[in-house]
Amino acid sequence: HGHRVALRSDLDSLKGRVALLSGGGSGHEPAHAGFIGKGMLTGVIAGAVFTSPAVGSILAAIRAVAQAGTVGTLLIVKNYTGDRLNFGLAREQAQAEGIPVEMVVIGDDSAFTVLKKAGRRGLCGTVLIHKVAGALAEAGVGLEEITKRVSAVAQAMGTLGVSLSSCSVPGSRPTFELAADEVELGLGIHGEAGVRRIKMASADEIVTLMLDHMTASSNVSHVPVRAGSSVVLMVNNLGGLSFLELGIIADAAVRALEGRGVKIARALVGTFMSALEMPGISLTLLLVDEPLLKLIDAETTASAWPNVAKVPVTGRKRSRAAPAEPLEASVSTTAGGLTSKRVVLVLERVCATLLGLEDHLNALDRAAGDGDCGTTHSRAARAIQGWLKEGRLKEGPPPASPTQLLSKLSLLLLEKMGGSSGALYGLFLTAAAQPLKAKTDLPAWSAAMDAGLEAMQKYGKAAPGDRTMLDSLWAAGQELQAWKSPGASLFQVLTKAVQSAEAAAEATKNMEAGAGRASYISSARLDQPDPGAVAAAAVLRAILEALQSPGV
């Protein structure tokens, strides 16, 4: 009460053990309060944003843990002048009161190539010291021995940061500015400028540059990591990166280190010590042996410590063979089957149509979606063209069996097309293939259309009138019901189906979207046809025209 001090709620259970206190300015969350818990810190003292905590609060924390019956207190302090002074003064006052207190100052910054009088800054590696000290304290090790061992560990560790920009203390402007094509290397966790500005590069290039800087023997603050070394790798989000970006950096770091022959014993990836909203990362390398690794692996209840598998990263199998696909059943070409020439001509016409519509579909999609409908359909067209070309060179012609043909096209679109369109076309084709297993006459093709539409509605949750691709296909499906009547004409019915699909696509401009991304857009802004419906109608038109071509 009355201080910015957070302590373990089970403080009284620590009687007879060493207490561990840390802290510093706020703005580094989850450090330091996130590391309070059994097996890590006993408590933390927080200052204002990027400001050292008050001496009185630090002393209050020391007294609180001492009065709970602990046998000594270790202060774990990052190497900044204010922290050293305030924690140091509190330590002196506590010792004068007869409380046994030791202090370790952590400087793990590997940015500076020449020795500075102030020494190396304390960065994210401090969290690893919390973990090691916490495991030792939990095991009942004495104050002097913990101090000695964590001091040695701190010498085998280095951290380096890189960021796309600085951070902003609330109410203030960023501490430095970067051009759009620059990144800052070796910056601190309070928005201090780094040691070097470099041009924007790929994640692999940035990570390689960082590791080169951290491990170069000419750098006075380097980490002596070399081929055969075993390390704990910590990839830390400085506050403003997404999980995706953090994962990309972690992957690059693992590959780069293993490429140098370094064994990654453990990899910790997450936000451990941030700098407000800074969009950057830091990499920490700690040289480890088996005894030290056991301390890293020791149990803790600290909420911000990750649940890491207690097995090495290096040497683990990180991929497995894809499962074998079932063998295709042999299906004979029955009456009504397709000739390979006819299949190729139809598919080539469909592909050419979709490629020609790419810009138009993208323009329609920008009003209600993310503007990529044409790109998605073009990706499908190129995938089919590639399959046809590969077939001519290697695999032979497309299957004449309608079931096998539709199933193959379904797999191709699911894998290559992407987006919800790829999934919907894949569903449609997979379901449509089933009624064609037994028969391939016109009633079977009508039933195939019904099955495809049913699958799209079941999983896509769209209905006719919802302003989606289903509107065109549904309109065509209603006309294709005529194929179920004896003596129905292939081309007369198909022509009416295509015309109905085109009319339905045009009519979507007057519909209110009930499904898909467009359903989130005000209907007042939707004055163009749905691009998916336009594409589906165009596919049906291409099929009709190809089938009507001379010689097909």
UniProtKB/TrEMBL annotation:
Residues 1-305 form the DhaK domain. Its cofactor is Mg(2+); Co(2+); Mn(2+). The active site is at residue 190. Residues 341-545 form the DhaL domain. It comes from the Eukaryota. Substrate binds at residues 25-28, 78, 83. Its EC number is 2.7.1.28, 2.7.1.29, 4.6.1.15. One of its GO terms (cellular component) is cytosol. InterPro entries: DhaK_ATP, DhaK_dom, DhaL_dom, DhaL_dom_sf, Dihydroxyacetone_Kinase. Catalyzes both the phosphorylation of dihydroxyacetone and of glyceraldehyde, and the splitting of ribonucleoside diphosphate-X compounds among which FAD is the best substrate. Represses IFIH1-mediated cellular antiviral response. This is Triokinase/FMN cyclase. It comes from Mustela putorius furo (European domestic ferret).
